[in-house]
Structure prediction request, 503 residues.
Amino acid sequence: MPAQNQPTRATNPVLPGFHPDPSICRVGDDYYLACSSFEYFPGVPLFHSRDLVHWRQIGNALDRPEQLRLPASMPSSGGIYAPTLRHHDGRFWLIVTNCSEGGGNLIVTATDPAGPWSDPIPAPDVPGIDPDLAWDEDGTCWCTVAGVAQVRLDPSTGQTHGTPHKLWSGGPGAKAPEAPHLYRIGDYWYLLIAEGGTERGHGVSIARGLTPTGPFEPCPANPVLTHRGTDHPIQNTGHADLVQGPDDSWWMVFLGVRPRGGTPGWHVLGRETFLAPVTWEDGWPVVGEVTTDLSTLPWPLSPAPAEEGRDHFELSALGPTWISVRDRPTELCTTKERPGWLTLHARGGSLDEPDAVFTGRRQQHLTCRARTLVDPEQGRGGLAVRLDERHHYAIEASGTEVRVIARVGSLRTVVAEQPVPAGPLVLALTISDPPPPHGPCTGPDIVSLGIEQPDGTFTELAALDGRYLSTEVAGGFTGRVIGMYAAAGTVHFDWFDYEPLEG
Prediction:
């Protein structure tokens, strides 16, 4: 199943949906990008591109249980935070923080970014989150973390040398100086950071010095990127990384959100990855306009081949775009038990449980449709839109009945139910724009859940306000994931179909 339906034109966001904290590196004519994954397994999705706008997921850096352990006690929006991906001395290096009990900073390496990646190298003395790797001319590796502090590091062993020292923490009194990236460009070392928090006050600032350890002089035009206090349709812009394009011009990847509806505006897809041009004036980067249309890029586009939106589960393992909550034991989630079907064995009684057996894909379009053919004869399960344990909508089948369940905060209710004939049936949901009239209290979208009749007719059982599956309501750092789950017994799924409608 594709990571996204590849457009024939170049648009922002370049990685729509829950793809935050982008880190990018260029190797020859190829670009590779990594994102945060939080409570989902496998962790750290990895993408490849030739033109910076069309990306194809090639794997996940942490795709084995021995690489990534996320305990059920870990809250949603814990787990894997803010990787840095770099290529040095013929090898790819990825450093990331596991913000769960017994986690910490770790390093994995690979010669091929599609994998396999090494077992993690712990870096226990690297403090904090958002670690960055940069090598100076003599091969010394410097690790810079949120705060912003720096320590010398041997990335092959995870051993630090010396004690961490403070560098520069952005504007006076700036909230949450984080996401540091250090680069040698021309005569200077540049320290790029995020500040202001990852909400509406988010921004990007930069400083420069003659050595990787400073002292650093702040750019007089800081923040070099922010949409705080504006009516720009893309908000929360920050957590950036710099890269040169195919023509060696400079570009910035960064996260942003697309809030919709009335006040305060709700974003439901999570933090997405955007692209903007960068020019240099007096030795400082100047970030160009952030637009949704990237059709004027100064190099040829390289769209990936079109991929099917339907997964028939005919392969022996799930593709890299499928993610599960905290873990994915093969005895609970398999395509081998019933050939051509995905089989889920329940563990826990509902999606409210932290160990729910759920497998889905990121919602990547503002409006879309998802469907699955489910056989619930031996259990109970269905199709869900998940933000976390306390915020999800589901259409659930149990033999001869289907019901729509809504979980919003501490409230859980069966919104609708209807008898159905025994046997497999198609469950469906559609996410669409809210109907008029629109006003200050209009939500971002409507989630309609129901069943599809044999003739293809959709029978809606419930239409629910999408604001309750938004970050502004639920909190946290993730976005919506649409997928299948088992709440009791064994549930089989013949296929899953995701179809963008627009946006």
